[in-house]
């Protein structure tokens, strides 16, 4: 960081990775769209038999297409089974295979509840130290299984959501078929390829839980190991984010070099940035992808710019120190293996793509950087998590089209389907539940005395407020990133139980809302576009949707930002 402005090579490296993923995104998106619409894909001879075996095991008729109530029931019950399985596994983890890890006892019930809710909802928010509180059996038989199934559920819901625009018989697909195809054809092959490349880049892959070394000062030190490469691959690809080590992606075993950091950036990008093309492929209108991709890119690049600018700004806490006068920017908390552009791109993408992995200490970021991270979790759609991010963006688009249509006297419709009271009602509930799940626990935590704001100064108080706000925002958005427990002790029963409820409601209610929106579209017969139909395949719609998304998010969350990061800026800390 001695010359933070002279990092042209690092910016170029990041730009090459970003450009490469965007170049292959249309092809990957087209493949995903074919998976969503149950059309044949390459590798049919490999994937088909595996899927048919799963269907026989589950007793599922793959030709049966469900209506919305049956789909929701299958979705919720299967996730309930997953939650109960993880909870019981963690409660009795020392009794299961690979469970006899020395010194690791069963989890307390409240921590097991938080963890089972966290990993089953694709949040992966950890209130535990992985190396000392989860056995290898708990990792492989519980948490890693949840990584695949939670990401697969997100893709399944997106597939069902999209079908509402193309069907007219009231059915939206089969949940068990959708999640099976998502895991077998998308997540598993990509994660295997990703794991193999990560091994070549230096990540360990072993069933050994640790290795003994002899330090120079004498004695014996145990260094934790594990199947790091395969864990890291699905962690990043599936918008999971819970590291196999507590240090997450700052750990040299998870992210050993600048090259591995760049590859992991690509892993996080590939599905979320391909999703607009998957949508366009599924509805068979290629032009529909570009307004959504444009909106994602505009918001995301502004966020990265703000994060970097905030880190380069003068830190008022350090500027009075003469010895630091030449580098008094926000350098604390940045991993020294990576340059600022590399670290900032990883961290911003991790938060905005709802991965939640950390290679920077968010609690040490500048107030502008923290505000940028919070905004990404407020939108949940730029690009958002695997499957759900595109679902949130489509929901915002429906509201924007509805409002725009009413303002100019046009019929609110999209892809030949009218946007009526039912769709807007569910869309509004989807967006409004997010601030409710953040602000009610935040107020209850402060008024109930479960966390206290320091009285040593406005800046310190605002920073602690921001950390509590960040905690519940991350859980409500199913993000999983954290500012760290240095500022707030979040390992208590209060934070475990309340956090579990926030994650469960924040995950499943919006997904049910997406399915209900799809249902109300699926019972309509499409009508051809008329002279009053809003053209969505246009640059104008992209700008309109971008501004609508930013303004709507600001209206919902600006007061919270004013009490947290913006107050820190005003207080000079």
Keywords:
two-stranded antiparallel sheet, 573 residues, mainly alpha, globular
Describe this structure in words.
The chain has helices at residues 8-36, 44-58, 68-91, 109-120, 130-133, 136-166, 175-200, 228-237, 258-283, 289-312, 340-352, 367-379, 388-408, 421-447, 458-476, 493-522, 539-563, 565-571, and strands spanning 210-213, 221-224, 413-414, 417-418. The protein has 573 residues and is mostly helical. The chain has a domain at 30-284. Strands 1-2 form a two-stranded antiparallel ribbon. A two-stranded antiparallel sheet has the order 3-4. A hairpin with a 7-residue loop joins β1 (210-213) and β2 (221-224). The longest helix has 31 residues, at 136-166. It is globular and about 75 Å long. The mean pLDDT is 91.
Compact summary:
By secondary structure, this protein is mostly helical.
**What proportion strand?**
under 5%
- Given the structure, what is the number of helices? 18
Helix and strand element order: HHHHHHHEEHHHHHHEEHHHHH
The amount of helix comes to: 55-70%
Average residue-wise pLDDT: 91
Shape: globular
- Helical/strand content category: mainly alpha
| Terminal residue distance | 21 Å
List the helices and strands and how they pair.
Blueprint: H1 8-36, H2 44-58, H3 68-91, H4 109-120, H5 130-133, H6 136-166, H7 175-200, E1 210-213, E2 221-224, H8 228-237, H9 258-283, H10 289-312, H11 340-352, H12 367-379, H13 388-408, E3 413-414, E4 417-418, H14 421-447, H15 458-476, H16 493-522, H17 539-563, H18 565-571
Antiparallel strand pairs: 1-2, 3-4
Helix pairs in contact: 1-9, 1-11, 2-7, 3-4, 3-6, 3-16, 4-16, 6-7, 6-16, 7-8, 9-10, 9-11, 10-11, 10-12, 10-17, 12-15, 12-17, 12-18, 13-14, 14-15, 14-16, 15-16, 15-18
């Amino acid at each position: 960081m001695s010359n933070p402005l002279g990092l042209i090579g690092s910016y170029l490296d990041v730009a090459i990775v970003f450009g490469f993923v965007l170049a292959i995104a249309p092809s990957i998106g087209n493949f995903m769209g074919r998976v969503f619409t149950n059309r044949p894909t390459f590798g049919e001879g490999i994937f088909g038999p595996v899927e048919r075996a799963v269907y026989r095991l589950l007793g599922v008729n793959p030709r049966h297409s469900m209506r919305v109530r049956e789909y929701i029931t299958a979705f919720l019950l299967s996730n309930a089974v997953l939650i109960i399985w993880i909870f019981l596994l963690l409660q009795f983890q020392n009794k299961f295979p690979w469970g006899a890890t020395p010194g690791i006892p069963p989890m307390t019930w409240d921590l097991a509840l938080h963890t089972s809710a966290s990993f089953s909802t694709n949040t992966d928010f950890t209130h535990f130290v992985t190396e000392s509180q989860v056995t290898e059996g708990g990792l492989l038989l519980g948490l890693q299984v949840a990584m695949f199934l939670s990401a697969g559920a997100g893709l399944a819901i997106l597939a069902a959501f999209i079908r509402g625009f193309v069907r007219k018989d009231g059915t939206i697909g089969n949940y068990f078929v959708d999640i099976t195809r998502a895991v077998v054809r998308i997540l598993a092959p990509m994660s295997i390829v990703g794991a193999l490349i990560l091994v070549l880049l230096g990540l360990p892959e072993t069933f050994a839980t640790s290795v003994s070394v002899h330090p120079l000062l004498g004695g014996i030190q145990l260094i934790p190991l594990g199947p790091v490469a395969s864990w890291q691959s699905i962690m990043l690809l599936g918008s999971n984010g819970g590291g196999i080590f507590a240090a997450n992606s700052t750990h040299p075993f998870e992210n050993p070099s600048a090259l591995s950091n760049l590859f992991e950036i690509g892993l996080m990008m590939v599905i979320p940035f391909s999703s607009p093309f998957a949508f366009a492929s599924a509805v068979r209108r290629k032009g529909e992808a570009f307004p959504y991709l444009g909106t994602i890119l505009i918001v995301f690049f502004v966020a990265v710019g703000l994060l970097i600018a905030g880190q380069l700004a003068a830190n008022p806490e350090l500027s009075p120190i003469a010895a630091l006068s030449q580098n008094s920017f926000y350098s604390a908390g940045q991993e020294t293996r990576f340059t600022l552009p590399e670290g900032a791109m990883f961290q911003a993408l991790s938060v905005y793509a709802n991965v939640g992995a950390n290679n920077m200490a968010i609690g040490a970021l500048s107030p502008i950087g923290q505000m940028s991270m919070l905004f990404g979790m407020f939108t949940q759609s730029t690009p958002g998590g695997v499957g759900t991010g595109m679902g949130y963006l489509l929901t915002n688009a429906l509201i924007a089209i509805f409002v725009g249509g009413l303002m100019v006297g046009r019929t609110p419709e999209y892809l030949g389907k009218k946007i009526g009271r039912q769709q807007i009602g569910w869309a509004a509930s989807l967006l409004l539940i997010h601030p409710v799940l953040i602000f009610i626990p935040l107020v209850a935590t402060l008024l109930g005395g479960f966390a206290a704001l320091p009285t040593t100064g406005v800046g310190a108080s605002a920073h602690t407020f921001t950390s509590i706000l960040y905690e519940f925002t991350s859980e409500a958005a199913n993000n999983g990133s954290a500012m760290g427990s240095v500022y707030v002790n979040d390992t208590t029963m209060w934070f475990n139980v309340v956090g579990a409820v926030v994650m469960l409601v924040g995950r499943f209610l919006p997904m049910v809302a997406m399915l209900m929106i799809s249902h109300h579209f699926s019972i309509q017969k499409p009508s051809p576009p008329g002279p009053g139909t809003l053209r969505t395949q246009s640059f104008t719609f992209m700008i309109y949707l971008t501004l609508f998304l930013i303004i709507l998010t600001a209206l919902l969350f600006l007061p919270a930002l004013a009490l947290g990061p913006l107050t820190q800026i005003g207080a000079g800390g």
